[in-house]
Amino acid sequence: MDFNLTDEQQLLKNSVSDFLSNRYALDTSRRAARSDVGWQPQVWKSFAEELGILAAPLPEERGGLGGGAEEVLVIAEVLGQHLVVEPFIGTVVLGGGLLRRSSTDLAAELVGGIASGDVVTGFAALEPTSGQAFHSVRTTARRDGQHWVLDGQKIVVSDAPIATHLIITARTSGDAADTAGLTLFAIPFDPADPPSGIDVHHYRTIDDHHASDLVISGLRVPDSARISEVDEAWPLIDAALDEATAATVAEAVGMLRKVLSDTVEYTKQRQQFGVAISNFQALQHRMVNMHIEVEQAVAASYLASLNLDGARRTRAVSAAKATIARAARLVGQEAVQLHGGMGMTEELAIGHYFKRLTVIESEFGNRDFHTTRYQHARG
């Protein structure tokens, strides 16, 4: 497997890294995340207009740049290194992944909106009884003339408090645990004034991202809001979820590299008994273990991203997610401990990285879920 970036990919990495180094301060992003706005919309527009990264993996015929999994990996890793809270993975990778697989006019319009920075999506899929299975859906959609009527509940809808559109999974046939019988709908959404038929509860998560719980009751949507064939949405969902999971793994790799680097540097500066604690053999062993975990995570990330279009997609993605879940816990905990009490202070970056890595452990399925998925997958 070739881990080397092409000249174009290296240029992309450098461009995003330079932009964030100069214009994305950690304290500013944390203040924005905890404000009523919840993010930095001007940064998002710059991602679209100056860097073009919102269009990078989207099809050219819909306003994108036609990039692929490798470009997403490069971007997500740099965003992770700088602990960016803006919804690149949720909107561009997951939302865009669902929409670009749809042949509807609405989907084409929304893909263009994502590329220009005007559309932010929230994927309303998980439910109180879903566990970690995205196909376990009890929310129903029934026909009523040229409309559909939706009823159900959705939980932990990432980015909904800042979204312009929701993409909702609903069951149009079959039992709650079936992968068949699912249909996708995309609807305009105003977080401050939700559509009639949706009650919302917005909240900030421990990693300074945002999510919502939804109660959907008698929500009427036109058939033009349907972005999948009736009963046949699961293949779209499954593929887009794997792409988002691989991107999240890459994001985590960026964070792990940063956490390891900062920890090593800190141990060189902090002194105990008149010498830098980096000279203590016991701590050196712990940092070597951290380094090994990071390198394994890097390899797993490449494995996942480079197999997204192949028969080994499911196994590669689940192997990567299980690997990153272990690495996130070990490296994150070791980094905090090696920093001592300072590790969890608001002023030090390590604590913020640790919180995000903790969330990533279970995001899109935890280690147990993906280990089981790997065992049952083909390829």
Topology:
Layout: H1 7-23, H2 26-33, H3 41-51, H4 69-81, H5 88-99, H6 105-116, E1 121-124, E2 140-144, E3 147-158, E4 165-171, E5 182-188, E6 198-204, E7 210-222, H7 234-269, E8 271-272, E9 275-276, H8 281-305, H9 313-339, H10 349-362, H11 367-376
Parallel strand pairs: 1-4
Antiparallel strand pairs: 2-3, 3-7, 4-5, 6-7, 8-9
Helix pairs in contact: 1-4, 4-7, 5-6, 5-7, 7-8, 7-9, 7-10, 8-9, 9-10, 9-11
Description:
With 379 residues, the protein is α+β, with helices and mostly antiparallel strands. It is 49% helix and 16% strand. It contains 11 helices and 9 strands. It has a 4-stranded antiparallel beta sheet, with no helix packed on it. Strands 1-4-5 form a 3-stranded mixed beta sheet, with helices on one face. The chain has a two-stranded antiparallel sheet with strand order 8-9. The longest helix has 36 residues, at 234-269. It is globular and about 80 Å long.
